[in-house]
Amino acid sequence: MSDAALDLKLCLLRGETPSPLDLNSFAGADRIRLRTQTKSAVSDRLAVRLLTLMASGRLPPGARLPPERQIAETVSVSRVCVRTALERLKSAGYLRSIQGSGTRVSECYAGSSLDRLIAANSTNLHDLMEICGHLDSWALVRAMRHGASEPRDRLVALLTQPVSSAHFAEREADVRFALAEATQSEVFLWLMRHLSRGLERAQASPASETERALQVASHRLARALRHDDLPAASVALAERSAALLQCNFHGGSTPRRGVGDLLEGDALLAALTITQPDQLRARLVAEIGVLMSEAKLSDGAKLPSERQLADLFGVSRMSVREALGALKEQGLVRASARTGTHVWQAPLGESGQELRCIVQRSEANLMDVCALRHYLEAWSSRRAAACASVDDLSDMRRIIGEMRRPIPALRRKIDLDFRLHLTITRATGSAVALYITEVLRDVYSVYFDYTLTELFSPQRDSLLLEQHVEIVDAIMARDPDRAGRAMEAHCHIFRNLYGLLHDTEPPTAHALH
């Protein structure tokens, strides 16, 4: 898959263009940089919002856009910002200007920009449904064993209510969000908040037979939930997931739509509303605070230089200087022209990183991360065995080669482990899998650090290496089933460790097969 195609798919999922992950550096020698870099400009977000509407068919070929002035007033930005967004889309072939007729969506034909956009969106939605279905089995067991009754009742109501084709995808997003609430897992709920946005933007046109099969499976699942029958619920869920994968979630350039799906006038202007990017200085203050907490810098410890921080976060030295000034005003750091910037009062690890705070609140949340990772990594390994490029395989071999050498530094061992799993995710070619990694990047960092430093003894290094080698060998052999089994065996060791830690069985042990 070309970088341009992957970037297009990722921006549709994010709603903005920059990537917090450098996708090409996973196998490099330097430490992975997982901090978010500068947020996209408002014009970028507006451009991606228009792309999303075009990809879903709500702005079809030939549709006319409102005048620049109306868009600027609705979105509360300058006309220059709107013009910048529109010009970018025109130069990329998505829009065209017609004398006397304004700006319109370009025609869609084989090989056109709009055709590639629709194909990218269709692939995203298929992967999204497949991965969500994969995670549903974990969520169902968790909801029925440890969940609350109120969100389960809400889920039953959603499964049994009739729904029109125009609101089909929106209902699916609601179903998954209700299932996430029923699990009472803060980590899973956080993840589904992000993934559900993709479903809400989808258009769906299930065939009559598929719609009937989905309705039957949904009612069976609701009945099993009412009677607290986990085996029956698991069977019904599998049937429902299979039916969903047969649905056409905008899988082509001319999907079937209801009349109410197309956007015009005020409805179109309302759909163009975008969120303003966070102020860069405020974000840098939070990121540097996390860096201080992560590194466990004691009072008086010296921070990296402005140049080093600017390089780490991908911003200018002036932006770093402003952020350090804000930290100084808060009494967290002190600066000296002679000795540099030092920690004055180390912040807690809650510096605006909501998901990181969720995970640090309890080890039960880390157990959820471990279980979710089990499902996601197994899916990624199977997909990587089928889709990995020659460069991906070369990167995996390089990482395994370094793992075979003696590594005295624990930090380097953790980085290599993390890097290998990221490289496998990249090898899937799936923008959805990479997007999940972006969403969970902070929690993965906490999980790897805690698990490999607190739970996993150095005496087991040879076992880890043996398992990593087996996973990579299976991927290189292009054997998806073997790769999936090898990854499941690898992740199951960690789930067992968390189970022993809490003197209980891991919450999803029976949902694996």
Automatic annotation (TrEMBL):
Ranges of residues in domain HTH gntR-type: 40-108, 278-346
SMART domains in the record: FCD, HTH_GNTR
PROSITE patterns, sorted: HTH_GNTR (PS50949)
GO function terms (MF aspect): DNA binding; DNA-binding transcription factor activity
Naturally occurring in which organism (per UniProt): Xanthobacter autotrophicus (strain ATCC BAA-1158 / Py2)
One Pfam family here: FCD
Gene3D superfamilies named in the record: GntR ligand-binding domain-like (1.20.120.530), Winged helix-like DNA-binding domain superfamily/Winged helix DNA-binding domain (1.10.10.10)
Record key words, sorted: DNA-binding, Transcription, Transcription regulation
Stated name of the protein: GntR domain protein
SUPFAM superfamilies: GntR ligand-binding domain-like, Winged helix' DNA-binding domain
